[in-house]
Amino acid sequence: MSQFDISKLPQGGKGFMHDWGSDQRAFKGVPWGKAMMWIFLVSDTFIFSCFLISLMTARASTTVPWPYASEVFALTVFGVEVPLLLIAIMTFVLITSSGTMAIAVKFGYEKRRKLCALFLLFTALGGLAFVGMQAFEWSKLIFHEGIRPWSNPFGAAQFGSFFFMITGFHGTHVSIGVIFLFIFARKTFRGDFDTGRKGFFTSMKSNYEAIEIMGLYWHFVDLVWVFIFAFFYLW
Amino acid sequence: MSDEYKDNKIEAKSADSSSGGYAPPVEHIPAKEAPEQELYHAKSFWTKWVFSQDAKVIGVQYALTATAIGLVGLVLSWGMRLQLGFPETFSFLGPATYYQSVTMHGMIMVIYLLTALFLGGFGNYLIPLMVGARDMVFPYVNMVSYWVFLAAVLVLIASFFVPGGPTGAGWTLYPPQAILPGTPGSEYGIVLMLVSLSMFVIGFTMGGLNYVITVLQARTRGMTMMRMPLTVWGIFTATILALLAFPALFVACIMMTLDSILGTSFFMPDIFTMGEKLKTGGGSPILFQHLFWFFGHPEVYIVALPAFGIVSDLISVHARKNIFGYRMMVWAIVIIGALSFVVWAHHMYVSGMNPYFGFFFATTTLIIAVPTAIKVYNWVLTLWRGNIHLTIPMLFALGFIVTFVNGGITGLFLGNVIIDIPLSDTYFVVAHFHMVMGIAPLMVVFGAIYHWYPLITGRHLNQTLGKIHFWVTFLGAYAIYFPMHYLGFIGVPRRYFEMYDSPYMTSAIGLNQFITIAALIVGFTQILFLYNIFSSVFKGEKSERNPWKANSLEWHTSDYPPTHGNFGKELPVVYRWPYDFSVPGSDKEYIPQDVPPSQVSTAKAEIT
Fold it and tell me: What pTM, to 2 d.p., does this model score?
């Protein structure tokens, strides 16, 4: 019985046919968890797509004009009204956290435990800052602008409905990510992925692949934000 | 006719002609790509049987829970039938209770019984065994999946006990009526329904990811995709459909929950009630219908595809012949799955959408008939000149083919806009979907239970009770649903609590009574079946190993019935497809998947 060597497999289109026609694995060399996260993200994409497509139909069919997002989401800084200022900062923070996440994955594969944990922590803090700013934005809209899920003074009621629903759903994703990032930062720092310490719930060993899987989720959440930004704030 | 072909020998092809283009050559054992799966070894009773991480136990848990809630759905249907057959005799059933029964019966049967049973039950039990894996890839997530499903079922049951009772909006839950006063359960029942559905989606996603990755990434050595039993193909494709279709239901549920609790207007148009305009307005009820049916139509195939797969295996094993056109069968499953995402609005011909949409969706709908017909022909051709054993699984499989063809043909009527419009919302529709996605998949469920019961318990079900079960269910189903087609043609509308003295009633009274009596008899027979299942665990005739002489891996485990870890020290190596029955030249009547070619050297092997 020969040893399995992934580098000897055919490449390109031929490789695709080979892999899907072969035994054991359709995605050669891909760990189970990573494949699972990808499929989950495809499913999650359908959820966010449904939200955004619903938003588009609502905009197209409301009887009352849709409010101007750039006016609603403006901050007054030193007497100057800057449209979308907070949203721009939020977007910047979230995209930056994607960068730190990528660095954490790199250090993870190099098994540089402490640096990996540090960048996971940066990522988590970035996410936390994003959720914090979102909380500020929500409270400003609710308490100062008088926007409610069922009505708002700017125009179509669906504006508030979709705003709170979509950003809330995305914020929930970010919050779940932040919680797991903190847990992973601790696990990494403690050396769980080096010592093979068993998980609290699953009693299974884990390794640095888990960081990459976490990273996939985090990048996805950031990417979704870009679409929400485009469809809700800019359009 | 057959005399002309007297001298023709019908030759079954052997495995190697269907081994997949890049399959390793004969006798070559491919290298292991990954180390063995690390399993959680349960020690106590609780972790072994209750909070179990073993896919086989989880599968049984899913099946039992689904059956239990399915019984509730069955009892609800009795209530409806009593009201329709004998109005005024059973006055405890008011209009509200009737609508609640209709709604809960539909939702329970489609989602909580059939989906959970096929994917959660059969999927969990069979996928790891059939692809040669020790367990699902993430047993812990799999366990959580079951418990979230159970919680969803409990929330659904709870809705029977809240003020106002469960929702009575019809299983499609169309807003705005679902959340407006006048519909039963419009305050609490509907919210619990939506919450329960959302939980079901979450629970299912955890399980579904497991099924997909187990099939894609955890097959044993030699098990190519094109050597998987069609059962696995059916469940696998259905799971992918579910992972892509349930998001739409999930989103619809969230939006309607907000409409109901917070007073948003996602789905609420401007409405006047009691002479006053409601505060809500500006939303689109059609949007809900699109979201719902984007889930709802693939849902039909989520139920049907596993049934297609399982019945192919039943027919092949019990007719001792390889499945005709295996590759065609696989591609038909995949194509049906893909097409099911572009036909959803054929449920909305009368919703007032753009008529050009109707044209488009009628076309795509009728195209689905092509791969579906291929499957039916292939089943029939598998039977042709097979060595048909009229065992109970085979009886149910034959019953499935007939019922499915019947339901499929009425589907062609309803798929055409022009014919659908007069038939819409009549009993013709009720008869159609009960035939095609109620009775037909249930036939497969029953056949599959009779087939795999020995594997799970080591004992056979009682054959006499089984025969009674089959004949009463099969003939009874026709006694119930054939007259319903006629009721539809004469224009009896569905969802009406009572027809009173409308002109329909003259010819419908007798038929409705007949249907009701037939339904009660068929319902009672299912209780007999359940008795059979529970009593045979202890009293059933002991089954020898592999009683049906099947080839797929689940019958060739180290222990029988299979135990934790499924296979012994070494995972089996697969050399062929699971349909090597009556191979020409072979001295063995059947060749299991894990028998190497050197052991059956006499079998004629075609290498392509």
Answer: 0.94
